Amino acid sequence: MGAWQPLPDDLPPEVRHFVEQLRQLKDRTGLSLVALGARTAYSKSSWQRYLNATQPPPRQAVVALCRVADVGKDEAERFGARWELAVQAWPKPVTVSARPEHEAGEAGGTGGDGEAYEDDPTLPWWDAPPKGPEPPSRRLLVVAGVLVAALMLLMVIGMIALG
């Protein structure tokens, strides 16, 4: 893997395997981290965290890397499966909380047993689903109503003037 810094010794095997595979995929692109950040919706520093196993990547980052690396559908699905296994085994960061332990777990924090990392809901603009038509705003309806009333008033005045 060349210039990569060594991964921590205490990483679970699923995480180690996944990060090693991710590094190989990144190397296959031939891109620097800056260039990879420009081709995906994730910054150079984010990629550094993902590829050095200090933070699990969101699923969409893995999808974006697979797309940039021109990975086939089957291999991309294998990366998705490896991602799921790695995220489940990823060491949880230790956080200091002023709340009692039972409340910290209920709030969906990152500390505590049995809690999984949440996938990053941020999607690159090219992956965002198309927006459907939005309902008209209340303000637009009020303006339309005022315009209709004004037109009817003008019609009544015109009929009186002609009559």
TrEMBL record:
A Pfam match: HTH_31
Parts of the chain that traverse the membrane: 140-162
Entry-linked InterPro entries: Cro/C1-type_HTH (IPR001387), Lambda_DNA-bd_dom_sf (IPR010982)
Keywords: Membrane, Transmembrane, Transmembrane helix
Region described as Disordered: 94-131
The organism's place on the tree of life at top rank: Bacteria
Any GO molecular function: DNA binding
Protein name listed in UniProt: Membrane protein
Organism of provenance: Streptomyces viridochromogenes
